[in-house]
């Protein structure tokens, strides 16, 4: 995987290292979590301690569980923004080569970032997190719920 790119940040209390995640690191991490899910180390959408421990080992360098949790949260949040917006809306396309969404975003200029920001492992993120996204199926209002009683 090569050397880990670290930048030293100095403070009065000592030294803290900032981890810069590379594409290959994301690939190894997501593959590890897909494997952990297959092993049953994700219960009700929550990763077990074993899943984190095994995934940290798969990365092959010294990193703590909190780094992994934070990065996984960032990946999931970015995926969620794109999935919720682009999934099921017409006029958008996913380019497998560039890993970018292709669309005219004049109606939603806030999503323009995703025309220029690749999501390298969207397919893996979709495997891990698309089932966690709300889709509105089975949703009823409080008024409808009262009527059902």
Commentary on this structure:
The structure is a single chain. The chain is an alpha+beta fold and 149 residues long. It has one domain (23-134). Helices cover 46% and strands 16% of the residues. The chain contains six helices and six strands, in the order ββαββααββααα. Strands 1-2 form a two-stranded antiparallel sheet. α1 runs antiparallel to α2 (49-59). The protein is globular, with a radius of gyration of 19 Å. It starts with 5 loop residues before the first strand and ends with a helix.
Concise structural overview:
The protein has helices at residues 23-38, 49-59, 65-86, 113-116, 122-129, 142-148, and strands spanning 6-11, 14-19, 42-43, 46-47, 92-95, 100-103. With 149 residues, it is α+β, with helices and mostly antiparallel strands.
């Amino acid at each position: 995987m090569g050397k880990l790119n670290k930048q030293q940040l100095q403070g009065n209390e000592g030294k803290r290292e900032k981890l810069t995640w590379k594409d290959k690191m994301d690939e190894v991490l997501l593959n590890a979590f897909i494997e952990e899910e297959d092993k049953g180390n994700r219960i009700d959408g929550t990763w077990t301690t074993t899943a984190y421990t095994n995934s940290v080992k798969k990365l092959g360098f010294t990193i703590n569980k909190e780094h992994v949790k934070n990065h996984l949260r960032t990946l999931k949040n970015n995926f969620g923004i794109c999935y919720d917006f682009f999934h099921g809306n017409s006029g958008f396309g996913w380019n497998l080569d560039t890993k970018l969404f292709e669309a005219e975003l004049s109606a939603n200029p806030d999503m323009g970032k995703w025309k220029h920001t690749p999501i390298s492992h969207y397919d893996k993120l979709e495997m891990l997190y698309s089932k966690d996204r709300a889709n509105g199926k089975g949703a009823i209002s409080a008024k409808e719920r009262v009527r059902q009683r």
